[in-house]
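In the previous chapter we treated chains in isolation. Here, by contrast, the input contains two separate entities that must be folded as one system, with a combined length of 1055 residues.
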Amino acid sequence: MKPPPFKYHACRTIDEAVGILDSDPDGSKVLAGGQSLVPVLNLRLAAPDNLVDINSIESLDHIRVQPDHVAIGAGTRQYVVERSDQLHSVLPVVREALSHVGHSQIRNRGTVVGSICHADPAAEMPAVFLTVGGEVTAHSAAGTRTIGSDDFFESYLTTALEPNEIVTQVKFDIPSGRTGWYFEEVARRHGDFAILGVVALVSLEGDTVSRARITIFGGGATPLRMTAAEQLITGAKASDIGGDLLERAAIEASAAVRPTDDIHASADYRRHVAGLLTRRAVTRSLERAGSPA
Amino acid sequence: MTSLIGQKFVRGDGLEKVTGQARYTADLAFTGLLHAKFLYAERARARIVDIDITAARAMRGVHAVVTQADAPMVRYGMFVKDRTLFAHEVVRFEGEIVAAVAAETPEQAEAACAAIRVVYEDLDPILDVEEALKSSSPLVHPDWKSYQTQNGVERGPNDCGHMTSVKGDVEAGFAEADHILTETYQSDMAHAVPIEPHAVVAQWQGDKVTIWSTSQVPFPARAGVAETLQIPQSNVRLVVPHLGGGFGGKCDFHFEAHVALLARQARRPVRLVFTRREEFVATDKVRHASKIELTTGVKADGTITARRARILLNSGAYCGDALFTTEIGLMMVAGPYRVPNLHAEVHTVYTNRTPAGSVRAPGGPETCWAVEQHTDELARRVGLDPLEFRRRNLVQAGDTGQTGQRFISSSAKECLERAAEIAGWPGKDFAPGEALGIAVGWWFSLPASSGAYVKLNADGTGTIVTGAQENGSGSVMGLATLAAEELGMRPDQFSIVYQDTESGPFDLGSAGSQTTFNNGRAVIEAAGEVRTKLLRKAAEMLEAAEEDLELVDGAARVRGVPSKALPIASVAAASQTSSLLIGSGSGNPPSLPEHDLSGCGGRLGYSAFLAPSFFCHIARVRVDEETGTVSVPEVTAVHEFGRILNPLGAQGQVEGGVIQSIGMAVLEGSQYDGGRQLNPGLLGYKLITAADAPRVNVELLEDPVDHGGPHGAKAVGEPPVVGTAAAIGNAVAAAAGTRVRALPMTAERVWTALHEQEGELA
């Protein structure tokens, strides 16, 4: 199918884009890489009157690696982020996660910010954002505000953004200390949305887990932090994190997800995989953090 | 001059296809073209109380609305005449066509379909094959007894074709056995999924209609139009522009008559192009969901003594061409093994689901998968390596098959040994969760009538006019090599006129891997006639004896005297003032090998395998035992095809077949909620793509046959898809330590099997 008729705006500046959104907040959609929006339009699941194309706004195309965070512009393609060695050296989980986003053709066009704002609960980048922590910068006619990663995802394809707001960049926090990471997803095929996946960062101070962040995606209406499992291992000595603790973390994770049955997998299977991937995530993250566990 | 046979060549239609210049049916445009849309039942089983098309007919842009009331009351069907063009009084599956509309835009046509008011009385759908066979079951076709059938079809209520294959004394065989193993395997419905969806354009001129269609079988499709519209076949011209793949899904007669009816009523050309959803729901060619029960007796040394088999095929609402699947599936239950005592039966069961039929190697992959899983279980039972168990039971020259056909030659063992060697059986240096799995099988070559003309042109080129259909495999393109070989010319000197019922002689179409096998012989015969005429004319012009001449490098010359030669162009030009250099051939089909059908019932002509070919596939898989995820990094495929005419083409068929089969093994399959498909689209129905394709090690063996295809060739198109799922299944079982008895072997099914095993152990 072809999309229903819409008015197309090739914006040159953020102010221009924000102006259009403000004039018709409910009838406008922002077009970045278009890898989710265009299929949605073609399937006529959305019928905006105005399509606000931000691809020509040059200031949006950047990656800035700072001591405590990485800023990625709303126009930056996934492949640019994936291939950034500088970013990789401080947040290696991003490259691994991006390699599972569709296929290279899709990543050549798709943007990291676009994926986060689309907020598909089975997508990789929203889960990465929630795990590493950080904020998005949102502009509207009323001004600029930031929204933290913990407050951003509200429900299925729904975020804390107002309809008249446009995200110009996302900041990923760079973890301090010795941090290990893990990414894995179970999908029907390479490049598909995950049946279930996990993203994790585990930091050590000495032999003690100082911070643990574990996110399951594909297990509910948003990516979900496994807070109970995180609490179980936080403060524990890495050398003590073995069979029993891991098993308890897995049970917590299985209980924390809210999956549904669909044609690709049952809710039971997803619950099982949530526990399993949590266990793997803790184990491998600790290994990567350089602990003997 | 070296022979062209076995040389690589570049196919004639390649450039236009890869550069996007090739035109397909949906690309055709005509002045005044209208767009067709179908109204579907969207329910599994119901009685039609009323159809009201008045509002639809009055809508803007609408030029025709047709229902069964506008079509001759003809029941059609290849084996059982059980179907009408449009629903008549009842609907039997969700994709049943109730009405069709032609309008100026597709949107108008769709809106008019939505405006047709149909009142249904819904009935409980018949969905389960075992239930459907019970005498208490309601009937999908209450009037089944009154339907006409092809000779020999044996039926029952809700069973549109049952057959048996009987050899020896199965009870005596079981009595000799040291072990008897019974298992049941099930497979889900799988689809052909060609990239190009079905499309049809029809245009009338007087009482003649030209139909451009995405058919794999132009002549049978033409016959279907003539039969259902009650017009002479000669009033129907069926043309296939480039075909964008078929995989069996475009066999048989489909939607040509519906569009022709619309075009006749509208007095305008009409085009139908299917959506992907329609491809899944409304076609009547899907791979049957099946249930396969196998009981086999073996001696302690691994010798198979007897097998009992029962296959239930879910045929959906209509029979279509399903009985090919029925009989071929039956022929696969013994595998390429010596099974001295056999009793096998198969039922083709009507249900209220999308009708099943030909998909590349109908009856092959699912039966081979079940039989080969069973074979590994038998090997385990007697404590033999799967390779050794097969060595002991494979057919050899001199053995007889399940219907008593004597194997003149068998490459089954060569394929097995060679594949084991390439794959490094039993394998070593495995990563965690890795294992190899092996499967063997056989397939047949289909003898059929087929015709071609060959002519030489004054500029020294040739033209082949054939009835054959190119569905993408390259088999029609390869005909040029066969003609060139006869005439001492180059393949690229031939143009080919094909897939137009008005020009080529009859051919069955691109089905049953038969194009090269049958039409190749026809082309060789036609080129042979041209060769005779060419030599006669050249001898006259060169003042030499015909028997002293040879045709080499585009010239007729006196053997041993290269200077005494004439370009073929000169001879062809000179022949235009005398007798033309034209020829025709129909490559008389060889008959089936002698066999014995005593005790067998319901058989329809596939009761012995002509020029059988053999293969062995070995898959390396990786199973994550905790998630059940299966990946397939490598498949070794060894096939014997008699004589390899075109190595590039044959290798492409094997690589493509293996990769396609991985989809069937681990990904594909329709899921149902009652009578409705849950995943009729490419988001929900997962095909394998390049990102997950394995490395495929292909080796082609030769064992030319006397009564086979050109130069001793055997059929190539279908065998490559038969064995891969079976090899993957055995590898999964070896890696996971448990067997998955359902296709596709999805991660969740593997996980569930592991889970159940844990439960058993606990």
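Chain A has a mean pLDDT of 96. The CA atoms of residues 85 and 189 of chain A lie 27 Å apart. Compare these points with the single-chain example from earlier in the chapter.
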